[in-house]
Amino acid sequence: MKLNLQGCRAYIARRQIPDYNHFAAELGVEVEVLKLFENGARIGYDAVRDIYNNLGEEVVREIIDFEEETMNGFKSKYVLVGKTLY
Prior knowledge:
The model has no long low-confidence stretch (mean pLDDT 95). This protein starts with a strand and ends with a strand. The protein has helices at 5-15, 20-27, 31-38, 45-55, 57-63, 71-75; strands at 2-3, 64-65, 80-81, 84-85. The protein is mainly alpha-helical. The strands form two sheets. The chain has a two-stranded antiparallel ribbon. Strands 3-4 form a two-stranded antiparallel ribbon. A hairpin with a 2-residue loop joins β3 (80-81) and β4. It has one domain. The protein is built from six helices and four strands. α4 (45-55) crosses α5 (57-63).
């Protein structure tokens, strides 16, 4: 999995996020990590889970490129209680 850059740009514009620091904080990662993701570094399952738990499934669908994975396949790796993955 990796960042969907077009989805990220649309999300940032819609939410009027002013800069990288705010976007990184919203995702729950350091700015340096966000820059690695932007440059194509893979995102681990636990990081995507944290984004899912903080921002919700719709945001994850928008900003994450699951590549060969699917949302259902991703969610099956965790236990879903309410709207939280454990």
